[in-house]
Amino acid sequence: LPWIFDQKFLTDQAKVQWLKASMLNNPDPQSLADQERQYLALTMWDGRANLAKIKAPTLVAYGIQDLISLPADSRYLAENIANAKLVEFDCAHDFSLAIPKELAKTIIDFCT
């Protein structure tokens, strides 16, 4: 979990208990084989050459404490996608659970 969530999230016992219950009650959990395939896809495919083809306005959001998708990678995406907006959050990888209201507002503001 420290790879996914920051210290603020991990020290909130209510959030951690909710997360554990959600994981245990997930009717479709990700298998180890699926995780391995996901890792292989991430390590074997390089999409950088395709970034210039993206023409739609693009929101690139990242957590400054992310250990999986590094902030430098998000900055690279934003620099290489036309019409990209870069937004950083003070959290780790899963900011959709760590800061859902802030993320929702950011997405709504971007889309309107």
Keywords:
single chain; 112 residues; mainly alpha; two-stranded parallel ribbon; 6 helices; 49% helix; 11% strand
Architecture overview:
This protein is mainly alpha-helical and 112 residues long. The chain has six helices and two strands, in the order αααβαβαα. The mean pLDDT is 93.
Concise structural overview:
The chain is mainly alpha-helical.
The average pLDDT is 93
Count the beta strands: 2
Give the overall shape, derived from the CA principal axes: globular
| Overall SS class | mainly alpha
Strand order of the largest sheet: 1-2
Q: What is the gyration radius calculated from CA atoms?
A: 16 Å
Q: What fraction of the residues are assigned to beta strands by DSSP?
A: 5-15%
Q: SSE order, as H and E? A: HHHEHEHH
State the end-to-end distance. 34 Å
Instruction: Work out the helicity level.
Output: 40-55%
Summarize the topology.
Blueprint (H helix, E strand, L loop, with lengths): L6 H4 L2 H12 L7 H13 L13 E6 L7 H10 L3 E6 L5 H4 L1 H12 L1
Parallel strand pairs: 1-2
